[in-house]
Amino acid sequence: MAKFAESELVLNKDGSVYHLNLKPRHIADYVLIVGDPSRVHRISKHFDKIEYEMNKREFITHVGTYKGTRITAMSTGMGTDNIEIFFTELDALVNIDLKKKEIKPRKKSLKVIRIGTSGGIQEDVPVGSHVASEYGLGLDNLMAFYNYPQDEFADKICSRVQKEVGLEFKPYLAKGSSELLAQISEGMIVGNTITSPGFYAPQGRKIRLDLRYPKLLQHLARFHYRNFWLTNFEMETSALYAMAQMLGHQMLSVNAIIANRASGAFSKNPYRTVDALIKKVLDRIAVQS
């Protein structure tokens, strides 16, 4: 079995992975992730105890237990570029022998749940609600660098989105874990999330610069194929779903809706919506563990 070169799988002097600065013992079966590093504490404040903390760049990690269930809580920062780093190194921690720098013969599958903030694009996805994403539609180009397979349904959705919006590129579509969706989503809106490579123009916001796709928001809000509709915008879900599929992990993205683009509303207390979602996810993990 070929070994990874030092330049390809980079480790720190203490043997931890390069960006996350973590070792295999720090990864629990459940991994909760957030974009904002300050939000890690909003998860770990509920823990019975915290056994480990690490701060490295935007990747903040707290490891602890909640009602007896061991959990790794981490921040990824914003964007699909950070997601690629996060998921590659997370998988390496459990599926690569870091001392030998060889892939392990038996693979481990983690349960990873993103707790994020998002903007609804439909009137029936109101501010203050929670959305569990069945699919992520990627407007980013990350999967152009991987051999990511698209089935017939995904290819049809992406071709139609490209045509109806008038995009110069073809998006990709990735599905989350059906098992985690069933475990976590009770009482939430089950939707399909658009992942954008930015917050302003890639989500149809115009501040000073002109937009190449001035009707992007309207086209995406109107798009549907049979019973498939797009419900909300954010910046990580599609990459998380695609990386999880390729690496063999279970992944679910749940979203606190703090804005509604259809009505122009923004939450007056976004932390309340986020904190309620965090507690809901923690309790549903603990019940199933």
Can you describe what's shown?
- The protein has one domain (24-288): 3-Layer(aba) Sandwich (Rossmann fold).
- The model has no long low-confidence stretch (mean pLDDT 96).
- It is built from 7 helices and 15 strands.
- It is an alpha/beta fold.
- The protein has helices at 40-44, 80-95, 152-165, 178-184, 216-222, 237-247, 270-288; strands at 30-34, 49-56, 59-66, 69-75, 96-97, 102-103, 111-120, 130-138, 172-175, 189-195, 224-225, 228-229, 232-234, 250-260, 265-266.
- The two termini are 36 Å apart.
- Helices cover 27% and strands 28% of the residues.
- Helix 2 (80-95) runs parallel beside helix 6 (237-247).
- A 5-stranded mixed beta barrel has the order 7-13-10-8-14.
- Strand 5 and strand 6 (102-103) form a beta hairpin.
- It is globular and about 50 Å long.
Query: What is the helix tally?
Result: 7
Q: What is the CATH homologous superfamily assignment?
A: Nucleoside phosphorylase domain
The shape, in one word, is globular
Rg from alpha-carbon coordinates: 19 Å
- Overall mean pLDDT score? 96
Strand order of the largest sheet: 7-13-10-8-14
